[in-house]
Amino acid sequence: MQRTQFTKNDDNLMILPPDIRKVPKSLEEIVRITKFSKSEIRLLYKGFKQECPSGAVTEPEFQAIYSHFFPHGNCQNYTRFLFRALDRRKRMYFTFEDYIQTLSVLVRGSIKERLHWIFCLYDIYDDGVLTKQTFATILRSIYDLLGPNMFIHQPITDETIEKHSALIFDKLDLHHSGTIDLDDFENYCLRNEQLIETIDSLSSNLV
Predict the structure, then answer these.
(1) Which of 23, 57, 101, 124 has its CA 20 to 30 A from that of 47?
(2) Is residue 152 within 8 Å of 205, Cβ to Cβ?
(3) What is the pLDDT of residue 17?
(4) 3-class SS string, 21-36
(5) d(CA 42, CA 27)
């Protein structure tokens, strides 16, 4: 299989070659594969095109977009994990179709569908399990994203991250196996009403 070739512009951002600049599927097809109405899709597409005129987003471009929302933090690691979840077909870019299908799950999906997506986001090694080290890596990326200004009164150290990730992991590792699979993750979350309410609240604010 021929490897996709990317070029870089003066801002050091990857530019998609013309043959993979993407036009989304028909409006009717996107309605069919998501839980959005036509008017919602039109509005979301307008915003997507403003940020991504080519119709497809590479990882460096995604990182540049995210950095506008978190100017005081380092978004590199977190955006790498999030980009991996959006690039569902592992093509080194995602399209409006990928974006809106993900958004449909997070906003209109069942709680199990949303938990499955969150688990896949956390499963950064694609091995179907989460470990204590996985949680430490994810937490570190979130703290980096928010930036040091958020934690002036309580600076975040490696020890803080290790303790926080161990606390979370131990709550989910009900069988004390050292790993958490999707069933373990779902079972714990579904029994935690406060957590489910938080997920519902975050989902309702995405659109």
Answers:
(1) 124
(2) no
(3) 47
(4) CCCCCCHHHHHHHCCC
(5) 8
